Amino acid sequence: MDKAIHLLICASVFAAASAHAAEGGGSVYPNGAENFVAGALPPPGLYGIAFVNHYEASRLNDFSGKQIGIPGFKVRATAITPRVIWVPGVSVLGGDLVAHMLAPLVEVEAKMGGQSQKKSGLGDITMGLGVGHHHGPNLHTILGLDVTLPTGSYRNGDLANLGRNYAALEPVLAVSYLNNQGFNGDLRMGYLINRVNKATDYRSGQEFHLDYAAGWGLGNGWVLGLGGYYRKQTQLDKQMEVELPNSKTSGMAIGPSIKYDSGRGWFLTAKWQFEKNMKNSTQGNALWIRAAMPL
């Protein structure tokens, strides 16, 4: 229960846009952000992606998944996150090199027991390198390594914060099966290795997570299906190097998901996901919209 209550005190935003994992139940990764076309690398060039996300939760769960009754509890977060992807046309290990960076612009509001706080600004920046492979006309993969930096503002004891106040390293594997008319499937899997939050001497446990989407292409640019995420902390949190019992976070989300491909180089995805079986975390719902285009 202590960790779950700590969630509100530590609410970070692009993460609170999916408000969960590790310290306070939050994460440096916005669970559920990826959708269709997660693992298919475009041709060499510069590309822009815009993520728009809104998350709300009025339920907080303990380590067993039971709701904790906190009067007036509510977390709301909105994020607009530009992402730049560069495919330089360089061959590495038989694939194509790719680099990316994203910088979330976020607004978060937290309420509890008659208190409230609202903040807006830059969140934690993520950047990374990867190698993409095309295994045929339908199957594509990207293997990469991301680093998240503590660039968002943070103040210990505040109800709402824009950053997590620690860095994280994340090996990533993304897989896409694309079909204009027929089955489409996507997975984006990552493993978070978190550093210490020096303001609280708290290290969030390592965590496996995946975003998924599955649908059917209608042959006219549209894909209709389902999407969401699954996450499970594999290690206990530590504070002052002491393991905290019952501190692992886990949960999942599912909801309707769609994609529209214009056939002219740009596409849109959208989904509405509902969280289920959350432990040591908020439990709410989120809207995700993503637009991708060449620059």
Description:
Residues 1-21 form the signal peptide. With 295 residues, this protein is mainly beta. It has one domain: monomeric porin ompg (Porin, Beta Barrel). The chain is built from one helix and 19 strands. The radius of gyration is 19 Å and the shape is globular. The N and C termini lie far apart (47 Å). The model is unreliable at 8-22 (pLDDT under 50).
Features:
single chain, mainly beta, 295 residues, 4-stranded antiparallel β-sheet, 12-stranded antiparallel beta barrel, Porin, 3% helix, 19 strands
Blueprint of the fold:
Elements (H helix, E strand, L loop, with lengths): L1 H8 L35 E17 L12 E14 L3 E2 L2 E8 L2 E8 L2 E8 L2 E10 L4 E11 L18 E10 L3 E14 L1 E2 L4 E2 L3 E12 L3 E12 L4 E2 L2 E2 L6 E12 L5 E13 L1 E14 L1
Antiparallel strand pairs: 1-2, 1-19, 2-4, 2-5, 3-4, 4-7, 5-6, 7-8, 8-9, 9-10, 10-13, 11-12, 12-15, 13-14, 14-17, 15-16, 17-18, 18-19
